[in-house]
Amino acid sequence: MTHPGTALIARISPFFLATLSLIAAASPVAAKVTGYLEQAQVPDSIALVPAPPAAGTVSAALDVQVSREALALRGTERFAQASLDADDSFPKGPLPPGGNQFSCALGMDVDSTRTPAIFSLLQRSRRDASATAGPAKNQHLRQRPYVVNAAPTCTPEEEDKKRETGSYPSGHGIAGWAWALILAEVAPERADAIFARGRNYAESRLVCNMHWHSDIVQARFLGAALVARLHDNPEFQADLLAAKREIAAARATGRSSSRDCAAEEAVLQVRPQSAL
Questions:
Q1: Which residues are catalytic, by number?
Q2: Helix, strand, or coil (residue 154)
Q3: CA nearest neighbour of 169 among 197, 198, 139
Q4: Predicted local confidence at residue 31, as pLDDT
């Protein structure tokens, strides 16, 4: 026996599916976000950074010491901040985590609607940072701290996925330092605060128990190398110029950060004392 609604569904389904296809094609979310650079243009992380510190070396001992100091911050507000910093996603809604990590340092919020050029700079350079980190990560396949010390991370939902991925160098660290360099150029009057945020953003990876100290030290170097390459890209240059205009417009209208910046700044002052 045929259900009474079957004929109706058969008649409307083609139209319904076609409509969905048109919506998907028109949606900005459907478009794949890419970095500014082709893979052959990103810095060669294998050539640019040395191998991770070998066991028994001074550098390896420093990694262990910093890791111990970072583990002591579990359960604190700094640990909670590290969890927030771990989210580098860029959803299209208001105040996406990855787009707004530097809100206090920049003195204003970043989102895809009001500051699309800044949003694009951060989102696309994050892709380039990942592409930069990949070759060295795969070459060295350094075990992450939580795999070695069996202590929890601030992102337990990622532990299984990250367990087999290389720790060295830190992709978050490369992105964070690249963001700091880019945003300091966009808003030079806020440069000191922005650079400080770039450093403690990477240090959140230590507190999270996801990276070793040398992972983030080398990430700063690669982040600087990445931004140097980006400056030769026309699309990056166009977004950079547009971002400066967005900053000027935001300052003129009195826009500011929606975060509790005094509280965030106090939390970020806490760091592993041996970290360079």
A1: 172, 205, 211, 215
A2: coil
A3: 139
A4: 66
